[in-house]
Amino acid sequence: MDFKYVIVGAGLAGLTMAERIANVLDEKVLIIEKRNHIGGNVFDSYNEDGILIHNYGPHIFHTNSQSVYRYLSNFTEWNDFWHRVLTYVDGNLVPMPITVETINALYNLNLDCSQVEDFLKEQAVEIEEIKTSKDVALSKVGQDIYSKIFENYTKKQWGIDPAELDTSVISRIPIRLNRDTRYFADRYQGMPKNGYTKMCERMAANKNIKIMLNTDYKEVINDINYEKLIYTGPTDYYYDYKYGKLSYRSINFAFETYDKERFQEAPVVNYPNDYDYTRITEFKQLTWQEHRKTTICKEFPCAEGEPYYPFPTKECKAQFALYAEEMKKEDNVIFLGRLAEYKYYNMDAVVKRALDVFELMTKHA
Ligand SMILES: Cc1cc2nc3c(=O)[nH]c(=O)nc-3n(C[C@H](O)[C@H](O)[C@H](O)COP(=O)(O)OP(=O)(O)OC[C@H]3O[C@@H](n4cnc5c(N)ncnc54)[C@H](O)[C@@H]3O)c2cc1C
Fold first, then answer.
1. Start-end ranges of CATH 3.40.50.720 in the chain?
2. Which of 228, 239, 290, 291 is least surrounded by Cβ atoms within 10 Å, i.e. has the fewest?
3. H helices then E strands: how many in the chain?
4. pTM, 2 dp
5. Is 32 in the pocket of ligand 1 (CB under 6 A)?
6. Which CATH superfamily is domain 5-38+204-243+312-363 in?
Protein backbone atom coordinates (compact mmCIF):
# COMPACT_ATOMS: atom_id res chain seq x y z
CA MET A 1 0.00 0.00 0.00
CA ASP A 2 1.28 3.46 -0.89
CA PHE A 3 0.15 6.62 0.88
CA LYS A 4 2.19 9.78 1.11
CA TYR A 5 0.56 10.53 4.47
CA VAL A 6 -0.53 8.10 7.17
CA ILE A 7 -2.35 9.32 10.27
CA VAL A 8 -2.74 7.25 13.43
CA GLY A 9 -5.97 8.16 15.22
CA ALA A 10 -9.26 9.55 13.91
CA GLY A 11 -9.87 12.08 16.70
CA LEU A 12 -10.08 15.82 16.06
CA ALA A 13 -6.29 16.12 15.70
CA GLY A 14 -6.07 13.36 13.08
CA LEU A 15 -9.21 14.42 11.23
CA THR A 16 -8.14 18.07 10.98
CA MET A 17 -4.80 17.03 9.50
CA ALA A 18 -6.48 14.59 7.11
CA GLU A 19 -9.00 17.18 5.97
CA ARG A 20 -6.26 19.74 5.25
CA ILE A 21 -4.04 17.22 3.43
CA ALA A 22 -6.95 15.97 1.31
CA ASN A 23 -8.53 19.34 0.51
CA VAL A 24 -5.62 21.78 0.43
CA LEU A 25 -2.81 19.54 -0.84
CA ASP A 26 -5.09 17.22 -2.81
CA GLU A 27 -3.01 14.25 -1.58
CA LYS A 28 -4.16 10.78 -0.52
CA VAL A 29 -4.12 10.07 3.18
CA LEU A 30 -4.79 6.94 5.22
CA ILE A 31 -6.18 7.14 8.75
CA ILE A 32 -5.68 4.09 10.97
CA GLU A 33 -8.00 3.99 13.97
CA LYS A 34 -8.16 1.25 16.57
CA ARG A 35 -11.71 1.95 17.71
CA ASN A 36 -14.75 1.04 15.61
CA HIS A 37 -15.65 4.67 14.94
CA ILE A 38 -14.14 8.03 14.02
CA GLY A 39 -14.21 11.16 16.20
CA GLY A 40 -11.98 9.99 19.06
CA ASN A 41 -13.34 11.21 22.35
CA VAL A 42 -15.84 13.61 20.81
CA PHE A 43 -17.80 10.68 19.35
CA ASP A 44 -21.54 10.80 20.01
CA SER A 45 -24.27 8.32 19.10
CA TYR A 46 -27.94 7.48 19.65
CA ASN A 47 -28.53 4.97 22.47
CA GLU A 48 -31.14 2.17 22.38
CA ASP A 49 -33.86 4.66 23.39
CA GLY A 50 -32.93 7.01 20.55
CA ILE A 51 -31.32 9.66 22.76
CA LEU A 52 -28.12 11.32 21.53
CA ILE A 53 -25.35 10.76 24.10
CA HIS A 54 -21.66 11.70 24.26
CA ASN A 55 -20.04 8.28 24.63
CA TYR A 56 -16.84 9.61 26.21
CA GLY A 57 -18.39 12.20 28.50
CA PRO A 58 -19.97 15.59 27.92
CA HIS A 59 -18.28 17.76 25.27
CA ILE A 60 -19.11 21.45 25.02
CA PHE A 61 -17.47 23.48 22.29
CA HIS A 62 -16.17 26.90 23.35
CA THR A 63 -13.40 29.09 21.98
CA ASN A 64 -12.09 32.61 21.61
CA SER A 65 -10.42 31.67 18.34
CA GLN A 66 -12.30 33.03 15.36
CA SER A 67 -10.19 30.93 12.97
CA VAL A 68 -11.05 27.65 14.76
CA TYR A 69 -14.73 28.56 14.96
CA ARG A 70 -14.80 29.42 11.25
CA TYR A 71 -12.87 26.29 10.33
CA LEU A 72 -15.25 23.93 12.18
CA SER A 73 -18.27 25.87 10.87
CA ASN A 74 -17.40 24.47 7.44
CA PHE A 75 -18.56 21.10 8.73
CA THR A 76 -21.44 21.92 11.05
CA GLU A 77 -24.04 24.45 12.03
CA TRP A 78 -24.25 25.23 15.73
CA ASN A 79 -26.95 25.39 18.37
CA ASP A 80 -26.56 28.64 20.26
CA PHE A 81 -25.75 26.84 23.50
CA TRP A 82 -24.44 28.54 26.67
CA HIS A 83 -23.23 26.01 29.17
CA ARG A 84 -24.32 26.15 32.81
CA VAL A 85 -23.11 24.11 35.77
CA LEU A 86 -24.51 23.84 39.29
CA THR A 87 -22.64 22.45 42.30
CA TYR A 88 -24.37 20.60 45.12
CA VAL A 89 -23.10 21.98 48.45
CA ASP A 90 -24.72 21.61 51.88
CA GLY A 91 -28.03 20.60 50.31
CA ASN A 92 -28.14 23.55 47.89
CA LEU A 93 -27.35 23.92 44.20
CA VAL A 94 -25.00 26.86 43.61
CA PRO A 95 -23.73 28.14 40.26
CA MET A 96 -20.21 27.34 39.03
CA PRO A 97 -17.77 28.91 38.40
CA ILE A 98 -17.71 31.12 41.47
CA THR A 99 -19.69 34.29 40.79
CA VAL A 100 -21.45 36.84 42.95
CA GLU A 101 -24.52 34.55 42.80
CA THR A 102 -22.46 31.61 44.13
CA ILE A 103 -21.16 33.51 47.17
CA ASN A 104 -24.63 34.85 47.97
CA ALA A 105 -26.18 31.37 47.68
CA LEU A 106 -23.42 29.67 49.70
CA TYR A 107 -23.56 32.11 52.63
CA ASN A 108 -27.16 33.29 52.35
CA LEU A 109 -26.01 36.86 51.68
CA ASN A 110 -27.08 39.61 49.34
CA LEU A 111 -23.75 41.22 48.43
CA ASP A 112 -23.11 43.30 45.33
CA CYS A 113 -20.10 42.79 43.06
CA SER A 114 -17.64 44.96 44.95
CA GLN A 115 -18.74 43.57 48.32
CA VAL A 116 -18.04 40.06 47.00
CA GLU A 117 -14.58 41.19 45.95
CA ASP A 118 -13.95 42.41 49.52
CA PHE A 119 -15.45 39.21 50.93
CA LEU A 120 -13.10 37.04 48.88
CA LYS A 121 -10.10 39.19 49.83
CA GLU A 122 -10.95 38.62 53.49
CA GLN A 123 -11.24 34.87 52.94
CA ALA A 124 -8.06 34.51 50.87
CA VAL A 125 -5.06 32.97 52.61
CA GLU A 126 -1.69 34.63 52.05
CA ILE A 127 0.73 32.12 50.60
CA GLU A 128 4.36 33.02 50.01
CA GLU A 129 5.10 30.74 47.09
CA ILE A 130 2.21 29.17 45.17
CA LYS A 131 3.34 25.66 44.22
CA THR A 132 0.27 23.42 44.21
CA SER A 133 -3.41 23.42 43.30
CA LYS A 134 -4.28 23.70 46.98
CA ASP A 135 -2.15 26.87 47.24
CA VAL A 136 -3.95 28.34 44.22
CA ALA A 137 -7.40 27.70 45.68
CA LEU A 138 -6.56 28.90 49.19
CA SER A 139 -4.96 32.07 47.85
CA LYS A 140 -8.01 32.83 45.72
CA VAL A 141 -10.98 31.81 47.88
CA GLY A 142 -9.75 30.77 51.34
CA GLN A 143 -10.22 27.65 53.44
CA ASP A 144 -14.03 27.46 53.68
CA ILE A 145 -14.82 27.69 49.95
CA TYR A 146 -11.82 25.46 49.22
CA SER A 147 -13.28 22.76 51.51
CA LYS A 148 -16.85 23.14 50.27
CA ILE A 149 -16.15 23.21 46.52
CA PHE A 150 -12.63 22.28 45.48
CA GLU A 151 -10.95 19.93 47.93
CA ASN A 152 -13.09 16.79 47.67
CA TYR A 153 -13.96 17.26 44.01
CA THR A 154 -10.26 17.39 43.16
CA LYS A 155 -9.54 14.37 45.39
CA LYS A 156 -12.25 12.37 43.61
CA GLN A 157 -11.14 13.53 40.17
CA TRP A 158 -7.43 12.78 40.64
CA GLY A 159 -7.35 10.29 43.51
CA ILE A 160 -4.79 12.43 45.36
CA ASP A 161 -4.81 15.53 47.54
CA PRO A 162 -4.77 18.93 45.74
CA ALA A 163 -1.59 19.67 47.71
CA GLU A 164 0.16 17.08 45.50
CA LEU A 165 -1.11 18.43 42.17
CA ASP A 166 0.60 21.17 40.25
CA THR A 167 -1.04 24.57 39.85
CA SER A 168 -2.54 23.87 36.41
CA VAL A 169 -5.46 21.81 37.77
CA ILE A 170 -7.27 24.43 39.84
CA SER A 171 -6.01 27.56 38.10
CA ARG A 172 -8.26 26.68 35.14
CA ILE A 173 -11.36 27.45 37.25
CA PRO A 174 -12.20 31.13 36.89
CA ILE A 175 -13.66 33.32 39.60
CA ARG A 176 -16.02 36.01 38.33
CA LEU A 177 -16.79 39.16 40.22
CA ASN A 178 -20.09 39.58 38.40
CA ARG A 179 -23.43 37.82 37.97
CA ASP A 180 -22.56 36.00 34.73
CA THR A 181 -23.35 32.38 35.58
CA ARG A 182 -22.44 30.92 32.18
CA TYR A 183 -19.78 28.27 32.69
CA PHE A 184 -17.53 29.52 29.89
CA ALA A 185 -16.88 33.16 29.05
CA ASP A 186 -15.59 32.47 25.51
CA ARG A 187 -16.81 34.47 22.56
CA TYR A 188 -17.96 31.43 20.59
CA GLN A 189 -19.85 28.60 22.27
CA GLY A 190 -22.17 25.99 20.88
CA MET A 191 -23.12 22.43 20.16
CA PRO A 192 -22.93 20.99 16.64
CA LYS A 193 -26.54 20.98 15.43
CA ASN A 194 -26.46 17.35 14.28
CA GLY A 195 -23.84 16.16 16.77
CA TYR A 196 -20.05 15.75 16.79
CA THR A 197 -19.97 12.49 14.82
CA LYS A 198 -21.80 14.10 11.90
CA MET A 199 -19.33 17.01 12.02
CA CYS A 200 -16.41 14.55 11.98
CA GLU A 201 -17.95 12.59 9.08
CA ARG A 202 -18.07 15.80 7.05
CA MET A 203 -14.43 16.53 7.88
CA ALA A 204 -13.51 13.12 6.49
CA ALA A 205 -15.78 13.27 3.43
CA ASN A 206 -13.07 13.88 0.80
CA LYS A 207 -12.39 10.81 -1.38
CA ASN A 208 -8.65 11.31 -0.82
CA ILE A 209 -9.23 10.16 2.77
CA LYS A 210 -9.29 6.42 3.45
CA ILE A 211 -10.10 5.18 6.94
CA MET A 212 -9.14 1.81 8.41
CA LEU A 213 -11.17 1.20 11.59
CA ASN A 214 -10.70 -1.52 14.24
CA THR A 215 -6.96 -1.56 13.57
CA ASP A 216 -4.05 -0.90 15.88
CA TYR A 217 -1.49 0.85 13.67
CA LYS A 218 1.26 -1.56 14.72
CA GLU A 219 -0.60 -4.43 13.01
CA VAL A 220 -0.30 -2.81 9.59
CA ILE A 221 2.28 -0.05 9.58
CA ASN A 222 5.10 -2.23 8.25
CA ASP A 223 3.03 -3.10 5.17
CA ILE A 224 2.50 0.52 4.16
CA ASN A 225 4.87 2.78 2.21
CA TYR A 226 4.56 6.33 3.42
CA GLU A 227 6.58 9.53 3.57
CA LYS A 228 5.08 11.11 6.65
CA LEU A 229 3.44 9.59 9.71
CA ILE A 230 1.17 11.82 11.79
CA TYR A 231 0.83 10.09 15.11
CA THR A 232 -1.99 11.06 17.52
CA GLY A 233 -1.90 7.93 19.71
CA PRO A 234 -0.08 7.51 23.06
CA THR A 235 3.64 8.27 22.95
CA ASP A 236 4.67 5.61 25.48
CA TYR A 237 3.00 2.96 23.29
CA TYR A 238 4.83 4.25 20.20
CA TYR A 239 8.15 3.72 22.01
CA ASP A 240 7.12 0.35 23.48
CA TYR A 241 7.07 1.87 26.98
CA LYS A 242 10.86 2.16 27.03
CA TYR A 243 10.69 4.85 29.76
CA GLY A 244 7.69 3.22 31.45
CA LYS A 245 3.94 3.72 31.19
CA LEU A 246 2.75 7.32 31.39
CA SER A 247 0.08 7.89 34.05
CA TYR A 248 -3.39 8.98 33.10
CA ARG A 249 -6.59 9.47 35.03
CA SER A 250 -9.52 7.58 33.57
CA ILE A 251 -13.28 7.75 34.05
CA ASN A 252 -16.04 5.15 34.14
CA PHE A 253 -19.13 6.61 32.53
CA ALA A 254 -22.40 5.18 33.90
CA PHE A 255 -25.36 5.93 31.63
CA GLU A 256 -28.91 5.76 32.99
CA THR A 257 -32.17 6.41 31.17
CA TYR A 258 -35.28 7.63 32.99
CA ASP A 259 -38.89 7.55 31.92
CA LYS A 260 -39.37 11.29 32.40
CA GLU A 261 -38.57 14.37 30.32
CA ARG A 262 -36.23 16.18 32.72
CA PHE A 263 -33.82 14.81 35.37
CA GLN A 264 -31.98 17.80 36.86
CA GLU A 265 -31.89 21.61 36.99
CA ALA A 266 -28.85 22.20 34.75
CA PRO A 267 -27.00 20.37 31.95
CA VAL A 268 -24.27 19.43 34.46
CA VAL A 269 -24.46 19.16 38.25
CA ASN A 270 -21.23 18.68 40.23
CA TYR A 271 -21.12 16.67 43.45
CA PRO A 272 -17.91 17.64 45.26
CA ASN A 273 -18.75 16.14 48.66
CA ASP A 274 -21.48 13.53 48.18
CA TYR A 275 -21.48 10.20 46.31
CA ASP A 276 -18.53 8.56 44.48
CA TYR A 277 -19.19 10.28 41.18
CA THR A 278 -17.96 13.79 40.39
CA ARG A 279 -20.80 15.01 38.23
CA ILE A 280 -24.01 14.15 36.39
CA THR A 281 -24.70 15.29 32.84
CA GLU A 282 -28.15 15.27 31.28
CA PHE A 283 -27.59 15.02 27.52
CA LYS A 284 -30.90 16.44 26.33
CA GLN A 285 -29.98 19.71 28.05
CA LEU A 286 -26.83 19.84 25.89
CA THR A 287 -28.29 18.72 22.59
CA TRP A 288 -31.80 20.20 22.91
CA GLN A 289 -33.22 16.94 21.66
CA GLU A 290 -36.93 16.48 22.36
CA HIS A 291 -37.79 13.06 23.76
CA ARG A 292 -40.20 11.76 26.40
CA LYS A 293 -37.33 9.98 28.19
CA THR A 294 -33.97 11.36 29.31
CA THR A 295 -30.45 9.89 29.61
CA ILE A 296 -27.89 10.98 32.18
CA CYS A 297 -24.25 10.06 32.74
CA LYS A 298 -22.48 9.76 36.10
CA GLU A 299 -18.69 10.04 36.05
CA PHE A 300 -16.61 7.84 38.33
CA PRO A 301 -12.92 8.79 38.05
CA CYS A 302 -10.50 5.86 38.28
CA ALA A 303 -6.85 4.93 37.79
CA GLU A 304 -7.23 2.18 35.17
CA GLY A 305 -9.03 2.35 31.83
CA GLU A 306 -9.01 4.59 28.76
CA PRO A 307 -6.34 7.28 29.07
CA TYR A 308 -8.23 10.57 29.46
CA TYR A 309 -6.32 13.13 31.54
CA PRO A 310 -2.50 13.27 31.67
CA PHE A 311 -1.47 13.24 35.32
CA PRO A 312 -0.43 16.77 36.31
CA THR A 313 2.49 16.06 38.65
CA LYS A 314 6.18 16.96 38.36
CA GLU A 315 7.18 13.28 38.18
CA CYS A 316 4.86 12.57 35.25
CA LYS A 317 6.09 15.62 33.36
CA ALA A 318 9.70 14.55 33.92
CA GLN A 319 8.91 11.06 32.63
CA PHE A 320 7.26 12.48 29.50
CA ALA A 321 10.31 14.73 28.94
CA LEU A 322 12.34 11.54 28.31
CA TYR A 323 9.95 10.56 25.52
CA ALA A 324 9.94 14.14 24.21
CA GLU A 325 13.70 13.92 23.65
CA GLU A 326 13.16 10.81 21.49
CA MET A 327 10.34 12.50 19.59
CA LYS A 328 12.65 15.36 18.58
CA LYS A 329 14.92 12.88 16.81
CA GLU A 330 12.20 11.61 14.45
CA ASP A 331 12.42 13.05 10.94
CA ASN A 332 9.28 11.73 9.31
CA VAL A 333 6.92 11.50 12.30
CA ILE A 334 4.77 14.34 13.63
CA PHE A 335 3.44 13.80 17.15
CA LEU A 336 0.17 15.63 17.62
CA GLY A 337 -2.80 15.76 19.99
CA ARG A 338 -3.61 15.06 23.60
CA LEU A 339 -2.14 11.53 23.75
CA ALA A 340 0.99 12.06 21.65
CA GLU A 341 1.87 15.33 23.39
CA TYR A 342 0.73 14.10 26.84
CA LYS A 343 -1.17 17.32 27.28
CA TYR A 344 -4.78 18.17 28.07
CA TYR A 345 -6.21 19.98 25.06
CA ASN A 346 -9.73 21.28 24.71
CA MET A 347 -11.34 20.64 21.32
CA ASP A 348 -10.62 24.14 20.03
CA ALA A 349 -6.99 23.97 21.18
CA VAL A 350 -6.37 20.64 19.49
CA VAL A 351 -7.90 21.87 16.22
CA LYS A 352 -5.81 25.05 16.42
CA ARG A 353 -2.70 23.00 17.09
CA ALA A 354 -3.43 20.73 14.08
CA LEU A 355 -4.04 23.73 11.80
CA ASP A 356 -0.74 25.28 12.94
CA VAL A 357 1.14 22.00 12.50
CA PHE A 358 -0.30 21.64 8.99
CA GLU A 359 0.93 25.16 8.09
CA LEU A 360 4.41 24.36 9.41
CA MET A 361 4.50 21.02 7.61
CA THR A 362 3.58 22.55 4.27
CA LYS A 363 6.12 25.37 4.69
CA HIS A 364 8.90 22.82 5.20
CA ALA A 365 7.70 20.47 2.43
C1 LIG B 1 -14.27 13.39 29.78
C2 LIG B 1 -13.79 14.44 28.82
C3 LIG B 1 -14.57 15.57 28.62
C4 LIG B 1 -14.13 16.55 27.75
N5 LIG B 1 -14.92 17.66 27.58
C6 LIG B 1 -14.52 18.64 26.73
C7 LIG B 1 -15.32 19.80 26.55
O8 LIG B 1 -16.40 19.95 27.14
N9 LIG B 1 -14.86 20.76 25.71
C10 LIG B 1 -13.68 20.65 25.03
O11 LIG B 1 -13.33 21.56 24.26
N12 LIG B 1 -12.91 19.54 25.17
C13 LIG B 1 -13.29 18.53 26.00
N14 LIG B 1 -12.51 17.41 26.14
C15 LIG B 1 -11.26 17.30 25.37
C16 LIG B 1 -11.46 16.63 23.99
O17 LIG B 1 -11.95 15.33 24.14
C18 LIG B 1 -10.08 16.62 23.28
O19 LIG B 1 -9.68 17.92 23.02
C20 LIG B 1 -10.06 15.89 21.94
O21 LIG B 1 -10.72 14.66 21.99
C22 LIG B 1 -8.60 15.66 21.55
O23 LIG B 1 -8.53 15.07 20.27
P24 LIG B 1 -7.30 14.15 19.88
O25 LIG B 1 -7.46 13.84 18.44
O26 LIG B 1 -6.02 14.76 20.34
O27 LIG B 1 -7.44 12.84 20.78
P28 LIG B 1 -8.53 11.65 20.73
O29 LIG B 1 -9.89 12.18 20.54
O30 LIG B 1 -8.28 10.81 21.93
O31 LIG B 1 -8.11 10.83 19.42
C32 LIG B 1 -7.01 9.95 19.39
C33 LIG B 1 -7.42 8.72 18.61
O34 LIG B 1 -6.28 7.85 18.43
C35 LIG B 1 -6.74 6.51 18.49
N36 LIG B 1 -5.62 5.62 18.80
C37 LIG B 1 -4.92 5.56 19.97
N38 LIG B 1 -3.98 4.60 19.88
C39 LIG B 1 -4.06 4.04 18.66
C40 LIG B 1 -3.39 3.00 17.99
N41 LIG B 1 -2.42 2.30 18.60
N42 LIG B 1 -3.72 2.68 16.72
C43 LIG B 1 -4.75 3.36 16.09
N44 LIG B 1 -5.43 4.36 16.69
C45 LIG B 1 -5.12 4.69 17.95
C46 LIG B 1 -7.78 6.57 19.61
O47 LIG B 1 -8.65 5.44 19.55
C48 LIG B 1 -8.48 7.89 19.33
O49 LIG B 1 -9.61 7.72 18.49
C50 LIG B 1 -12.90 16.42 27.05
C51 LIG B 1 -12.11 15.28 27.26
C52 LIG B 1 -12.54 14.30 28.15
C53 LIG B 1 -11.68 13.09 28.37
1. 5-38+204-243+312-363
2. 290
3. 14, 17
4. 0.95
5. yes
6. NAD(P)-binding Rossmann-like Domain (3.40.50.720)
